[in-house]
Amino acid sequence: MEQKIKYQYSYFIYPYLVEEKKYNKYLLKLLKDKKCELKIFEKEKDLNLYTYFLPNIREKLFWSFGRTRRQMKSLNELEDGVKANLLAKNECNIFEYSLGNVVQGKMGQEGGSGIFFNIQKIEIICFKSGICFLLLKTIVEDDDKFSDILNFNYKFREINADYSFLKDYENIRLQTNNLKDIKELSTIINKITGPTINTKDMNLDVEKFITYSYACVEQDSWNIDNDFENIKEEFIKFTNVLPSSYQVNLNEKLENEKILETRKYAKIGFNKQSTALLTSSASVENYTKLPFIYEREYLYTYILALYKKIYLKKINLEFMQKRNFAQTREKFLKFTSDFWIQEITNDMEGSLMYEKWRKTLELDYLYNEIKNKYDITYKDLNIEKTNKINLAIIVILAATLTFNIINFILLYFKGK
Predict the structure, then answer these.
(1) Three-class SS string for 41-107?
(2) Are 182 and 115 in contact, with CB atoms under 8 Å apart?
(3) For residue 253, what is the DSSP state?
(4) Is the pLDDT reported for residue 275 higher than 90?
(5) Phi, psi of 272 (to 5 degrees)
(6) pTM of the predicted model, to two decimals?
């Protein structure tokens, strides 16, 4: 039986890197772009976000919470170059990119049936380290078929891949006065992000968007009489971003540790490249309150987890290159102090979700691997330094001994 959807959305997340020494210039480029606007967070309008994050992390992700309106007014009056230099000192800056009117699109055959969707917003999240994230929020329109949601997510997440021209992407059509086709959207994405650096060396998969999705099925599909097991296969496809036609076999069932259930009729599936929340309208909160929390507090928590993973890969690459050990060491220690040991939230559900992401993304493994490498490298460096010092001491002693022997011989013959 075809599952019906009451409400849904998907965020497609694209991580990219900007050279640290060019980070100021990148912020300046965003500030000069008239379609790009710095996102300001205020306690009054963003109270839930403010109370969700603990102070240390909140200050790093949303610095504007700690600024007065007068300070923000003064910042906005500055020349773009000065403003970019000041923003570059913040740990994180968030921008909103406007495409004008909501961009409408259609996925399907020309002249035939298809999936209509909206690109509702684009957000840019930039960290001082040069690690950035581009977020696109999409909603499938006028369609209550779960199968269409699965097919849309599966196809859309690859539109920016280098090999996308090999696939049938001309069947994704954007209906808007602002963009001609899906290729133009890809051009805009590349214009915002610029050329990617180090992604191959860091073994980052940037060919597909990371997918973060929410869907609420009609209560007829999942309620007190109809068990979750009836839609579990669809949930597995939803979590793993698979098409509706995919046949799930017994070996591909999600392990329990990759599923989180914190409230009635709501399950979250975790994957290295995706997170999916599936709920039922049998509970009113699942389609009223929960979708808004999921795309605000929990989404930013996910971004923080992704940032940690990419930063650790970045630090690992720098250690392997051994160009400036002392500087890399300081970065690693600062990351440990500023992010790794910091609690994120006291919210129970948010804490459980972060722990799932921490495990799924293998953050502890990455951190400990780097820490062990750092310990070994540091010892090797000290041994090398000690060897050099010992060699210098031997040379000095040899020179001193030679000098003393020569003096002794001269004194001896002088005495003759």
Answers:
(1) CCCCCCHHHHHHECHHHHHHHCHHHHCCHHHHHHHHCCCHHHHHHHHCCCCEEEEEECCCCCEEEEE
(2) no
(3) P
(4) yes
(5) -60, -30
(6) 0.86
